[in-house]
Write a structure and sequence with these properties.
By secondary structure, the protein is an alpha+beta fold. It has a single domain (4-61), classed as Heat Shock Protein 90 (2-Layer Sandwich). Helices cover 16% and strands 20% of the residues. The protein has one helix and two strands; from the N terminus they run H-E-E. The chain has one helix spanning 31-41, and strands at residues 45-51, 55-61. It has a two-stranded antiparallel ribbon.
């Protein structure tokens, strides 16, 4: 999981949190920032919940328009 003090930085562009796993994985630190921006541009929200040493869960919501009746 992600430390509580690091959660606020998680969706920042080019942010890569340091942990033993991330050192071996490549990336630019843009994936979560782009994902959150995309969700927000569509009127949704994106967030993460985490318990250190237990795991993290990422959530997003998107509004949906009513389906017209035929």
């Amino acid at each position: 999981g992600i430390r509580k003090e690091d959660l606020g930085r998680l969706f920042e562009p080019f942010e890569r949190l340091e942990n033993p796993v991330s050192r071996d994985v490549g990336g630019t630190g843009l994936g979560l920032a782009i994902s959150k921006k995309f969700v927000e541009l569509h009127g949704g929200k994106m967030w993460a919940e985490s318990r250190e040493n237990a795991g993290s869960t990422f959530h997003f919501t998107l509004p949906c328009a009513p389906v017209p009746a035929h």
